[in-house]
Amino acid sequence: MATVAISAEREHYLNKEYGIRSWLLTTDHKRIALLYLASITFFFFIGGFFALLIRLELLTPAGDLVQADTYNKLFSMHGQVMIFFFLIPSIPAVLGNFLVPLMIGAKDLAFPRINLLSWYLYIIAGVIYIHCIATGGVDTGWTFYTPFSTAFSNTRVIEAGIAIFISGFSSILTGLNFVVTIHRMRAPGMTWSRLPLFIWAHYATSIIQLLGTPVLAITLLLVVFERAFNLGIFDPTRGGDPLLFQHLFWFYSHPAVYIMILPAMAVESEVVACFTRKRIFGYNFVAMSSIAIAVFGFLVWAHHMFVAGISLYAALIFSILSYLVAVPSAIKVFNWTATMYKGSISFTTPMLYAFGFIGLFTMGGLTGLFLACLGIDVHVHDTYFVIAHFHYIMVGGAVMGYLGGLHFWWPKISGRMYPEGWGRLAALLVFAGFNLTFFPQFILGYMGMPRRYWQYPPEFQVLNVLSTAGSTILAVGYVLPMIYFLWSMRYGKIVGDNPWGAAGLEWKTSSPPPTFNFDEEPEVTWEAYNYEEIPAPAEVPVER
Amino acid sequence: MFDNFPLWPVRASTGAGNVDALYIFLLALSAFMCLAIFAMILVFATKYRRRRGVEAEQIEGSSALEITWSIIPLGIFMAIFVWGAVIYFYERTPPRDASEVYVVAKQWMWKLQHQEGPREINELHVPVGRNVKLIMTSQDVIHSFYVPAFRIKQDVLPGRYTTAWFRATRPGVYHLFCSQYCGTMHSGMIGQVTVMEPAQYEAWLSGGGTSGSLAASGGSLFQQLGCSTCHRSDIQGRGPNLVGIFGKPVRLEDGRTVIVDENYLRQCILSPSTNIPSGFKPIMPVFQGLVGEEQLNALVAYIKSLSPTPAGAAGAPSVVPAGTRTQNTKE
Amino acid sequence: MSDSPIAVEQHGPELLHHFADPEQQRDAATLGMWLFLATEIMFFGGMFCAYLIYRFWYYNEFAAGSRSLDIQLGTINTAVLICSSLTVALGVRAAQMGNRKLLVILLLLTIVFGLAFLGIKGVEWYQKFEEHHIPGQSFNADDLVNQYPQIHVDQRHEQIYFSLYFAMTGLHALHMIIGVGIFIFLTYCAWKGRYTPKYYTPVEMGGLYWHFVDIVWIYLFPLLYLIDRKPLR
To answer: Would you kindly state where each structural domain of chain A is located, as residue ranges?
Structure first.
């Protein structure tokens, strides 16, 4: 690995052009990925700030930090920011955008200008949402249930709805780009069965983004119209049905959770393969599981409505289907674990995140079984049990997948290595802080503490204090990578094409890659995860 | 359980035990699965850690394993599903002889009225060992009636009735929470359910200076609003005779047949031109805006009291199953 | 390789750098447009779902509301849109044949039809405004109630019909406006001679979009206008 300073180096996508115009008008998928990285990090901190305020308020049973209305806005906006402006874009828009063309041997995505448009739509949506926050916020819960959102809330529902509506288009266009790219732009020899599992999972994610997000769009639009023009579609006093809103809303929002987790599973496959130096066990099954999750994910939405007033028979059907959708996820966990058998395992930061992912996703997924179970769900629906469940998956799963992926591909993205010691420390802090924050919430939920409660009965205090304590540790764990990634861009150890000795086309080009990705169009003659042909690096490149 | 560090609320209803049993089973299953996977990972991570000169062994996969670890979990999931469904059936099938409490939720309080007449706000007194059915509606947004100790929860919707039921087994005072976000004081929309010994409950009932049963007040309202002009019980009036109608099927003008339940009665009063019984003209005045939720409850209770016997074969459980009990009416 | 001098000469500037050849570019565009239309189906689908449910519940109100729509104007609009789809299809053919003048004329005609549709829709909406059929404070369906006294119409449920009417036709009209905008752009490019028999993908893609918007109307028309036009006893 050369230690020559970057400025004397060959040309790559970062130094090809300088200046703000070259960034804001870029059509290079790698630059767009970095634009997304900066923007979603910004929103992550806004959402995280709201979360900290929530946890601080919940230190005491009484509502004594903020007013009730403020608290209601905090949890609503925490949810909306984290879901729509952080989680849904995160891995696809950052890692997906960067890697999909590289992994399949293409020069760019199918529609580079639409890719840039996607980012601009995200930014416009983000600006509108920030304006919404600044002018009073929204207090409907991230779920916008009617008739509260249409006829009773006094907050900026229309603005929030429009912002999320626009961000939905960003999501749809990203998905569209990926599907077309994967279908039409694979390099010669890159057959479907040679695709990395990362691509399979992103393909499945994109299908969901394409087919599900428009339903959210129309649903939010109808809420906006109802508020703005006094239409009566969800108004019970005019014969409208509040449950109609819930069906339409969850038809998207359930598949949305698979938009959030499938990309993290994508990262998991790549990281586990690399740091066990093995092909993923059961490649076909893992690939098909991604597709199965996407398909089945559309069939289970009303498991969010078991006590909403749906019929008994509808509840039975949705409960059974929800158990079906759990099977492919279980298959994946078993396959990753089986990959470790007779592997050659190193404990780098990405691998630590991968271990954490399996653990936390397994716990979160198992608690999903509780919720799919009709008899139990009646008791724990709308309590902290649900909050704990989805945070285990979305934070313990998706965010850890995101961070693991960022660390794994950081050398490719920046040409530099992050400091491994700090990386491992941060991973451990995140894991420990996360568990302390959210495990007590399972108990709180079964004990009966409802969610979205600004004040609560005193017997719930101890568990809430534990949870808040955990959240402070978690916060430190999140801040550290922000600092050392930035540090590494200037002072990190310079790396070559393939510091990890990983399989995959992206590692066959330089770090950072040239603007058009490959000096020569690759021709693929090998299977995915051909680790038997790739020598392991002499030592895992660490930098203390 | 552990008094200082409880894992679940007290069990105070007949259903609570089953729910907790299933919960404990799921806990055990999850703990087992987690331990199994974590142990395997730990063992593999140690045994197969990277060592100089030792290469990883490339293993493609094993269809047999894949099928095994798909079928077995699926089987376990189906078992859990059935167990949960059985509990859910039980929770959603109020017994026919349940005494009824009408609940009206509004931002941000619970208004309850026993069929015997007494009203309560944010409190519900019930006797041990009696089946209690809650017939609930909301005046504004969606709320949810949640009593952790009974393991029951049901969303309360504007524009229709939803029901829940329980039979308390243990005297005491238990939390009542609103568990569907409903605005500013959602977390303040709480109360308590007080379960008393039967004798104490009777004492409480008679102590309150009540103004007669809910059905009786419904009866006076029926006269006041002029309902009895068209809905006569002696001869066929302009409207259907309501005696004995509750719980029975009725044929509508469009050919469909529905069971007369609380929701149907409510709709007839608030939107009479929808779903008219066949053979009748759409001339009933609209009462939406003229009667409040509690008055509606009283009218519904009164009409139910006109049914002489509990409904016959309407056996299938539904959201609001047709069921009445014999009432002492003054008719 | 696609960067060799010989290969570059065979393609015009319309071949984007990241595609290997024009076929790949065209295939990508076509797949992309079909996927986009699938998202539009899901988008309108939400409203169709709401329509289905409420029509089942409030049939009388839906029928009365449907009868209050101007069937002549609706039929004319349907014919207008079908004609516009014809001009679009012929336009694609003209592009295929390299007939620039014909292409421009047909694209212009399409725009004219589109604008005609929007104009007639505007007239219909204005009629609704005059009749007080716009949901909200000033809604008044007494005329419907009185028109057919034997079929009792609940005015509150009637508002739901009209809410859906305006939402569905409004969003359809918005898509038409966007379509007209796209076709103005296409006409300009066609006039500039940018489309040749070798490269007319944007015309095709625009055509696909236009046909889709047309098909949505083909569903909206019977669902909104033709619920129950039988003469009443």
So the answer is: 26-533
**CATH number for the domain including B219?**
1.10.760.10
Q: Which of B6, B80, B146 sits opposite A369 (nearest CB)?
A: B80
CB contact under 8 A, C60 and B286: no
Class of domain A26-533: mainly alpha
Contact C28 A185 (CB under 8 A): yes
Q: Which of C35, C140, C164 to mutate to test the interface with A (most CBs of A within 10 A)?
A: C35
Looking at residue C10, its pLDDT comes to 53
| pLDDT surpasses 60 at B305 | yes
Q: Are residues B124 and B136 in the same domain?
A: yes
Per residue in C154-190, pLDDT (tens digit) is 888 999 999 999 999 999 999 999 999 999 999 999 9
Residue B322: the pLDDT is: 36
CA distance A537 to A87: 33
On chain C, the residues whose CB falls within 8 A of the CB of B274 are 57-58, 60, 154, 157
Are B222 and B84 in a shared domain? Answer: no
Same-domain check for residues B97 and B200: yes
Q: How far is CA C8 from CA A106, A491, C3, C13, in A?
A: 18, 42, 7, 9
Q: Which residue of A has its CA nearest to B29?
A: A366
Of B41, B45, B77, which is closest to A369 when you measure between CB atoms?
B77
pLDDT of amino acid A1: 44
pLDDT (average), residues B59-72: 94
Q: At residue A77, does pLDDT exceed 50?
A: yes
Looking at the fold, whether B186 and B228 belong to one and the same domain comes out as no
Query: A249: phi > 0 → left, psi -120 to 50 → alpha, else beta; which?
Result: alpha
Closest-CA distance, A161 to chain C, in angstroms, reads 16
Residue boundaries of the structural domains of chain C = 40-225
Model pLDDT for residues A148-170, shown as the tens digit of each residue: 999 999 999 999 999 999 999 99
pLDDT of the residue at C194: 92
**Cβ–Cβ < 8 Å for A131, A116:** no
Q: How big is chain B, counted in residues?
A: 331
Quote the pTM value. Answer: 0.92
C147 and chain B in contact, CB less than 8 A: no
Q: Inter-chain contact A516–C17, Cβ cutoff 8 Å?
A: yes
By residue range, what is the domain housing residue B84? 1-40+64-211
Residues 92-121 of B with CB under 8 A from A: 92, 107
**Chains with 3 or more CB pairs under 8 A to chain C:** A, B
Q: Are strands B191-196 and B123-127 parallel, antiparallel or unpaired?
A: parallel
Top pLDDT among C42 and C229 is at: C42
On the CB side of A282, CA atoms within 13 Å amount to: 26
Using CB atoms, which residue from B26, B41, B77 is nearest to A323?
A: B77
Region A56-77 average pLDDT: 96
What is the CATH architecture of C40-225?
Answer: Up-down Bundle (1.20)
Q: Which chains touch B (3 or more CB pairs under 8 A)?
A: A, C
Inform me whether the C-beta atom of residue A193 falls under 8 Å from chain C C-beta atoms: no
Q: What is the mean pLDDT of residues B118-127?
A: 94
For residues A22-38, give the mean pLDDT.
96
* Residue C11, pLDDT above cutoff 90: no
